[in-house]
Design goal:
360 residues, alpha/beta, Methane Monooxygenase Hydroxylase, Chain G, domain 1, Rossmann fold, Helicase, Ruva Protein, domain 3, 3 domains, six-stranded mixed beta sheet, 15 helices, globular
């Protein structure tokens, strides 16, 4: 059996990045993307096995720029390749907690659950154990998935992101096997984070009309595996997200040590979101303009704000405003853009938070 060292893994990653850059400059974007993805596979494995924190940090940073480029290639040229969402990612994500506007209670709870046990393991011994399962619930577009990704990036944990489509199989017994393999891989790769998006689609309330035998088996397997994670000392954290918390099975809800409400962004958070999403795009917006935009978007989610920024100018007059007074263009866009979360939706989440929530 051939043993590959961390140095060799790093060398293979760097070699494929260099080849990708050559193809990228030559305009061979599909080939460049494939090489970037191959490089990140080696890089992820290297980062998992590298024991030197300084080297891990330095090399992770060196790969982030190439990761951004690959992401742009995939979006701009509609390229297809290995889906990163279905693979373990060892801290190569771009999400950072500092990019999250507001949500201080959410961030604090996640830091306590994921970062403190890694940085201060001596405090979590005996009966004092870190939280092992956290449910993030709230309206769609508020940043639940981004928060999970950011925590994985901050901790350098191996990140397993799954949805119902990754688990459900038409073959008898295959779905439960997928769940079992997922948790075993997470244990082997610890410290790790399992993120289950839209968990209500996998673990809806028992007895629903649309629940079949396969759904019950998946739910039972998840309950068993999560109970195992909560009872052992393996450094595995389960994060799950839902937009419909009342649809979640009661037994599954009880498996979560923490149930955190992720609300719509407040005034300061909306201002921060505008700044983050506009980023280094050339603009002439002032601090006063950003404050004005934040006030105009009361009731908007983070994804609503992102959509507003992405809206193209419709007319020549709009284009002229984009070049001169961009705040006027945003005002016009906001006049025809409505929030996607209704007051009725918010009331449901607030009621669930009052009945079952811990933070937020």
């Amino acid at each position: 059996m051939t043993t590959v060292t961390t140095g060799q893994l790093l060398e293979l990653a760097e070699k494929n990045v260099k080849l990708a850059v050559v193809e990228d400059k030559a305009g061979q974007f599909e080939e460049a993307y494939k090489l970037y993805m191959k490089a990140f596979e080696y890089a992820g494995t290297y980062l998992f096995y590298e024991n030197n924190p300084w080297l891990k940090k330095q090399n992770r940073q060196s790969f982030l720029g190439h990761y951004r480029r690959a992401t742009k290639l995939r979006g701009r040229h509609h390229l297809h390749g290995p889906s990163l969402s279905n693979e373990a990612k060892s801290g190569l994500g771009l999400a950072k907690l500092s990019d999250v506007g507001g949500l201080e209670a959410c961030k604090e709870a996640l830091v306590e659950a994921a970062i403190l046990p890694i940085e201060n393991p001596q405090f979590f011994t005996g009966k004092r154990q870190p939280w092992k399962a956290i449910l993030l619930y709230g309206p769609p577009g508020t940043g639940k998935t981004y928060l999970a990704n950011a925590i994985a990036t901050e901790t350098g944990s191996t990140f397993f992101s799954v949805s119902a489509s990754d688990v459900v199989s038409k073959w008898m017994g295959e779905s439960e096997k997928q769940v079992s393999i997922l948790f075993q891989r997470a244990r082997d790769a610890a410290p790790s984070i399992i993120f289950i998006d839209e968990i209500d689609s996998l673990c809806g309330s028992r007895g629903e009309n649309n629940e079949n035998e396969a759904s019950r088996r998946i739910k039972t397997e998840l309950l068993v595996r999560m109970q195992g994670v909560c009872n052992d000392e393996t450094n595995v954290l389960v994060l799950a997200a839902t937009n419909t918390p009342y649809a979640l099975d009661q037994a599954m809800r009880r498996r979560f040590d923490k149930r955190i409400y992720v609300p719509l962004p407040d005034l300061k958070a909306r201002e921060h979101i505008f700044k983050v999403h506009i980023g280094d795009t050339p603009h002439n917006l002032t601090e006063t303009d950003f404050e004005h935009l934040a006030r105009r978007t009361q009731g908007f989610s983070g994804s609503d704000i992102f959509y507003c920024i992405q809206l193209p100018p419709n007319t020549r007059a709009d284009f002229d405003k984009m070049l001169s007074r961009q705040s006027q263009l945003f005002d016009k866009m906001l006049s025809r853009q409505k929030p996607t979360v209704s007051e009725a939706d918010l009331e449901v989440h607030k009621r669930f938070n009052k009945e079952f929530g811990n933070e937020g």
